[in-house]
Amino acid sequence: MVETLTIQPAASLQGEVTVPGDKSISHRAVMFGAVAQGTTRVTGFLPGADCLSTIDCFRRMGVAIEREEETVVTIHGRGWNGLTEPDSFLDVGNSGTTIRLMLGILAGSPFYSAVIGDESIARRPMDRVVEPLRRMGAQIEGRKGGSFTPLGVRGGNLSSIEHVSRVASAQVKSCLLLAGLRADGITRIQEPYRSRDHTERMLPAFGIELQQSENEVSLSGDQQLSSPGEVRVPGDISSAAFLIAAALIVPNSHITIRNVGLNPTRTGILDSFREMGGAIEIVETGEWSGEAVGDITVTSSALKGVEVKGDRIPRLIDEIPILAVVATQANGRTVIRDAAELKVKETNRIAVTAQEMRRLGAVVEETADGLVIEGRTPLKGSHCNSHGDHRIGMATAIAGLIADGGVTVGRAGAIDISFPGFEHTLHRLTNG
Questions:
Q1: What residues bind 3-phosphoshikimate, as annotated (predicted)?
Q2: What is the pTM of this model?
Q3: Is 8 annotated as a binding residue?
């Protein structure tokens, strides 16, 4: 694993590339395939550390999962009742998606399991899913009353609930939907804004009926998943966002990214870049497993500062570090609000983004729920640190493309969590 990554300024970016498969969809394809009847073949799977943690956890519960190729996975589903009690810890590594969604499955499974993760997971709040799962009847214990890992889960008979979430969180929503499939009655989840809806799009492909309105989703229990045979994973728009950003801010650039997922609950970053004046062309080319897919063409652009807040935030929550980099090159001030959720990601991304941007000479103010970035500011080369966070690592690397003297990123191996081959892809674009 690469410990440091040095990126030098680029004259331009040119060419056509693809990005690795969508992380959120890859997780769900493995989990749903594991508890479905039948065999599911997943193509375009993201072979990053987080998704491999999901595979490992379900293998420990008796599910046969084969990797035919790096990006092709076959899951031999065992149905709800086919999971077996693991004989060792279920280690989710650095993956918040794995632990929170898997807890929804474990809550309805009639055995004991113990769930752990790395130091970052140990700091991330689990009470947002533990509390409603307890209300449904699951027995969950853990550090600080079950707020933090390690967690012990004894699943069993569940009852449906109506849950009003304080935050727009796809992980909370998905966890409770999965638990609701094992519960008596109808489980209903409401959110302040609509979070990403990959679960709602994929479950019908596995034979599940659910009902949706703008900020609410519900389903009835006692439904069995059945394999659709194949799940095709599009390119991850969160990964594509870093290349889009690079093309916008590096002069004389023109790139196309093929086969990117265009789920409307994920395209907030495209909306914001366009509001800033970014020349971005999107051509939808089809639908893969319920997800819109298309090609994105980007040309370097003169940008202006914008305000990003409210229901836009859940649609670009993972892209805010790279949005901050782009904002340094926009004329005027960019204000990001309502993003306090960033504090409980792999790092406190508000604090860490501000810290690393200042190393590069950016003028950034950290607020209680976001950032204020002044532009247009020349960036200077420096040594940065990913802090073990893949999004921070990639954001600082992209800054290196325009920083005088380039940027060296420490703990760069974290980038492989979501974008294996990131350095190679950048090299292709900078060498046209």
A1: 23-24, 28, 169, 171, 318, 345
A2: 0.95
A3: no
Domain end (from 208, 232, 256):
232
CATH code of residue 250: 3.65.10.10
Residue spans of the chain under pLDDT 70: 1-2
Number of CB atoms found within 10 A of residue 167's CB: 15
Verify that 66 and 161 share a domain, yes or no: yes
pLDDT of amino acid 432:
73
Hey, which residues are catalytic here?
318
Q: Specify the pLDDT at position 174.
A: 98
Q: What pLDDT does residue 195 have?
A: 94
Do 126 and 51 belong together in one domain?
yes
Q: What is the largest CA-CA distance in the chain?
A: 61
* Residue 149 identity (one-letter amino acid): T
Q: 258 and 395: one domain?
A: yes
Alpha carbon 197 to chain centroid, angstroms: 12
Q: Is 100 annotated as a binding residue?
A: no
b/e map of 244-268 (b: 16 or more CB within 10 Å)?
bbbbbbbeebebbbbbbbbbebbbb
Same domain, 202 and 342: no
Tokens read off for 202: 């994929």
- The answer to whether 318 is annotated as binding is yes
